[in-house]
What does this fold into?
Amino acid sequence: MLDISKSVVKKAQKLGAEDVIAQTIHSVNEQIRFSQNEIDIAKKWNNTSVGVFLTYKKRVVATEIKNIDEIDATLETTMSFARASRENPDFGGIAQGPFKYRRTSYDKKIVGLENPHKFVFEAIDAALKEGARETAGILYLTNMESAIATSTNVATEDRMCGIELSIRAFSEEEASGHGVTVSSNLRGFTPKKAGQKAGRNSVLARNPKLGEEGKFNVIFDPMFAGSLVNNAMDMTSAFSVDTNLSMYVDCIGKPVASAIVSIYEDGTHDALGRRKYDDEGVPTQRNAVIEKGILKTYLHNTSTAKKFKTKTTANAGLVQPQAFNLILESGGMSEEEIFEECKNGLYLTNTWYTRFQNFRTGDFSTIPRDAILKVENGEIAGSLKNIRVSENLMELFKKIRALGKEQQQIKWWGETYVPTIVPFVYAEGINITRSTE
It folds into this structure.
């Protein structure tokens, strides 16, 4: 694979390209989908592709080659596009190697897993024992090898793997719960626990009543909190800031969250998004994005770093810098203590359809999904429906008053697409409106 990447770089240079990045990726993927407590579909497939980024006189073009036999023809076509394109005034070059890389590892037990369906039934059985009547969801495994080479002395390889399970349980038509477990190793993968949570919350969600509007103290489950962190950290990408699609414009060094909030982007962390290098081949690192409520940095690639007069944070994305793993630092409270602190309010277990009315200001709304639970005297006291969180995202983070001790890694296809490690989050005075959806 590294030979393929090196060969692509040399061929592109012979055709006249200046800066070149070639990343070859081979992945083996397995998916098991289930509904009504039974497996519906099980499939396994391989993908091999070469991502190519090249420049010609500050004209920038990128493509993906899915057929290795068509590399030469595709490069010629890509170069013709580059010559016909306009200059990109924001292009600031690519990272100059060589680099020293840390040693990385992967879980061979995931790679050699022969019967992953057992985890599906483990989760289903756990949900049913909690009182659920029906379940549905997906198990996904990936084993990926990558190799990157550039015209600026980068040449290295990496291997990653992961396993993800998402289970939704129903005890009644309007009573559901959702649980996930994701990990880069089998010892951190807990399908039984995910099933128990989904089943238990589906029972707590029975007989929902119409929720009220107003300002409430809210406990955000890690499922919900992961979505909030994802959306906030999207806006720390220098691309979002530069295009004015961020509430963090001109906020470096300023308070943007409660003083107890620290959020890190860490591609080196042994989580599902662990990477040895970014899309320019720069070794990934741990970045303090928000520290004790203060915005410390945007996420950068080489070009955005040059424009902002700083250094890359190793988060390329060649066009849009991106996070690989996100971590909201934990606090000092147990789950029970957080409920006691809340006293009276809401416990929101999941969310759906997050939409921004204004990216620049951070005004958004999102619809709580699955179990929406009322809290009275620190205890769950019934189920609600048809409410919406209508808030300003920066103000919401400033309203955080407590964080849980334990963290959970969250990733699922609906709302939390960047692997995010989060605890329970408690915030006060959250604006709740009615929803008809």
In short: Residues 341 and 378 are 7 Å apart (CA to CA). The first strand starts at residue 20 and ends at 35. The chain has two domains: 2-122+134-163, 209-434. Residues 71-84 form the longest helix (14 residues).
